[in-house]
Amino acid sequence: MSLRQLDRKYLGRESAAQDIEVARTKGAFVYDARGKRYIDFLSGWCVGNFGWDNTAIAKPPARRRPDYVYPDFLYRPWVELAQLLARITPGKLEKTYRATGGSEAVDIALQISMASTGRRKFVSLEGSYHGNTIGTVSVASTEWREPYPNLLSNCMTISPPLGERAIARLETLLKKRDVAAFIMEPISCNLAVLIPEDAFMKRAQQLCRRYGTLFIADEVACGFGRTGRLFASEYFDLEPDILCMGKAITGGFAPMGATIVTARVAKSVEGEVGFYSTYGWHPSTVDVAIRNVRWLIRNQARLLRDAAEISAYFGQRLAAMNFDDLKDIRIRGMAIAVEAGDGDYVSAITARCSKNGLMVTTAGNAITMFPPLTLDRRTAKAGLDILEKSLR
């Protein structure tokens, strides 16, 4: 049997795998088993923010570590990483709960919200995606909920664009004082780099505080420099009650998630609920995450400065390309979307890009790109040349 046939037989997937058998990765490149090189404008969908095989992150730890640590024991690297996350996250976030990935991190946030407020309702953005657990699918878009008839009840949505009408809808839902949390990506990578108006974000936070609703910032995809700031919340001076992390927290070297909350929220659930995760923050994973976050702190200024220059270059090049029925180009840092034509049109372009050696993806009627923040000008040009060629 071929690898594709074996994959279909033994691996559960939402849809058939793409016809790329990955052999190795390096920097901004992915190599398949035939030796073909792809320029990677996906970064594993916001995972490899700092490039693949970053030796500063991948090197073995100097210290010896245990094979496993029971979650109820003391372990110094857990505290070390939690301190680093409290240092770099916005607002007054302080206490971190351990998770194995972004979905679990968001699910923990939902549980904390219910326990802290005593409420059961949630509000999210229509079209959003927050993970693959029963809880996270419940607060996702209608499309994600459709296959599952008995999810959490009382999960409501507001629809983009995120302006005055959306704020009015949000206040209508919150003023009954029965909503546990409002959850959103501050800049939504999952909604083709949807960028809220500043006034919406300011007002949303005010409404949450007025009506006793917690604000959950899902930064699983847009965190760790992806949007040009360490966290997208910083664009709006947002001080969330809870912030969720995953994906780039280890630079793609190991699975991990984290849910960080304010001291006030942590105190409100202390001794009442537990968030036990058998493999949450495994010792080997924590070592990688510590190196990753330390590397980010040391290189933050240079990394974000260089990424801003490449981001501007993307904007210039994309604006000069001949897309059919171009509707919008949305860019924040290295989160990039080009809305043009329809779903069939952008899907055809991404297929041609793949054939020509460039990895991009789609969201609705948009081509979306999430290149590594370490992308150099030469590689950016080569990838954008392929994209432009693939329009024809």
The biggest sheet, with number of strands, parallel, antiparallel or mixed sense and barrel status, is: 7 strands, mixed
What structural class do you assign from the helix and strand content? alpha/beta
Please provide the ordered H/E string of secondary-structure elements.
HEEEHHHEHEHHEHEHEEEHHEEHEEEH
The average pLDDT value, as a whole number, equals 95
Using only C-alpha atoms, the radius of gyration works out to 21 Å
Overall tally of domains: 2
Q: What is the architecture of the largest domain at the second tier of CATH?
A: 3-Layer(aba) Sandwich
Task: Give the tally of β-strands.
Answer: 15
Structure annotation, total helices: 13
Query: What is the strand content?
Result: 15-25%
Considering the protein shown, what is the CATH homologous superfamily of the largest domain?
Answer: Type I PLP-dependent aspartate aminotransferase-like (Major domain)
Termini separation (Å)?
A: 36 Å
Q: Which shape, going by the Cα principal axes?
A: globular
